[in-house]
Amino acid sequence: MNKINRKLWKYHGGLHLEEHKSISTGQQSALLPLPKRLTIPMQQHIGEAAHPIVDVGDKVLKGEMIAEASGKVSAPIHAPTSGTIVEIAALPVPHPSELNVLTIVLESDGQDQWCERYPIENYRHASSEQLRERIHDAGIVGLGGAGFPSYIKLNPGQHFAIETLILNGAECEPYITCDDQLMRERPEAILNGARIMRHALHAKRCIIAIEDNKPDAFSALNNALSQSGQNDIELVMVPTLYPTGGERQLIKVLTGKEPPSQGRTLDIGIICHNVATAAAVADAIIDGTPLISRIVTITGEAISTPQNIIAPVGAPIEELLDFAGRESGVNTQLIMGGPMMGVSLSNTNLPIVKTSNCFLLQPAEPTKPESPCIRCGECARVCPAELLPQQLYWHSRAKEFEKVQEYNLFDCIECGCCSWVCPSNIPLVHYYRFAKTEVWAQEREKEGANIARRRHEFRLERQEKVEREKAERMRKKKAMLKDKEGAKDDTAKKAAIQAAMDRAKAKREANQVDSTISASDSQPKSEL
Ligand code: SF4
Ligand code: SF4
Fold it and tell me: 340 CB under 6 A from ligand 2?
């Protein structure tokens, strides 16, 4: 066995929770029958929404790009099957806000016919840039739930040397098993993806971390590693504790290091990716396949056969719930994600997106009434980010947003441990989400005001410059006129002097002539 006996560290807090995982791992992942209509939102990732490059009526092949990335932080979107584009409109997305987002609706032709694909024959001969470009073009985003475009996380920049690439296979939240199932079923793809990412990052080492409640996943990866004849990846079993799958918590467990508050993991030479993202990278590079489908866990007490389903992006959640056997006649509550970090959805007629890892259908329970904080300190005891949740709660409630930032609100990973243990049933995470949203809104407003102020200052500066230039032009013009007039005066003066001199000269000459004539007139006549 390739198990590495690496020294492990502990992070503060955390919870041992009932797992409820085995209910959905009893069978192979099933392939969802191809839905007739796929509704594919343009916003499935963090960053700018993708921009459609197809029109209604266009015929597309499976894997063909239908929307291009728009901006630096964005990802393109591809047709999950072949068919016809029948609608491009703003439609609701699986998000608690139930906001409408520009969406392409694709009607399947039932052929599931692939477009031409262009694999890279040997990734070891490809440059980091070539690999990143392919990963970008394949529309790969973080599949652990965050949805950050993966090519960006594979480009740390020349100022950062990456020591360690960590693949996160912890999957610590109860009920969710899609990564566990993927590790069992496609270990080679995960190992290949890990090698490609490591090559792109020039990382010195690669670790795949798996919680010790997934022995089958660990064995599958271990066997695949042995069969590959390479011993280039460390497989590490980490103790099961919620939320070890948090990036910062996993880094602490594996290395003892902690990224700076609100800093990035690459500040300490580490990059983390999810195991499912690694498999998607292998598919993109080795097979030329873009990200058009994923494994989704459909589970909960209101599902008759909880299981993992391979579904195309855009498939209706309803079809997945029906496929796994939705209990009828039960009043249910649908959660996207797990019970700790998931969000409630009131509508099942929504599509799955690239980041949909789990849908949990539970019998609806009445909300427990909230009572005042008794200052028991339980929330601080379990907080894995070593925050003071009680103080964050007070200041969020009082809308003291500067204070919440002083208490490092943005280090909160919204794991829900504090809410889970709170004896007063205070939905603490809701308060933190509210505070974060308000701070972001204020920052946007401040940024907007700064832009307006800069524009105003620029306009004033421009006006002043125009005035200054005008005054300078006037000054020059006046000076020129003055010079001209001065020159004119000189010429006139000179001319007047000259005229006076000429007149004087003429007079003198005239006087001379007169005196000559007078002299001749005075001579005797006889001399003539
Ligand atoms: S756990 Fe709840 S009641 Fe106890 S200090 Fe924290 S917020 Fe207050
Ligand atoms: S939700 Fe935030 S404050 Fe609460 S335990 Fe998790 S990290 Fe700490």
Answer: no
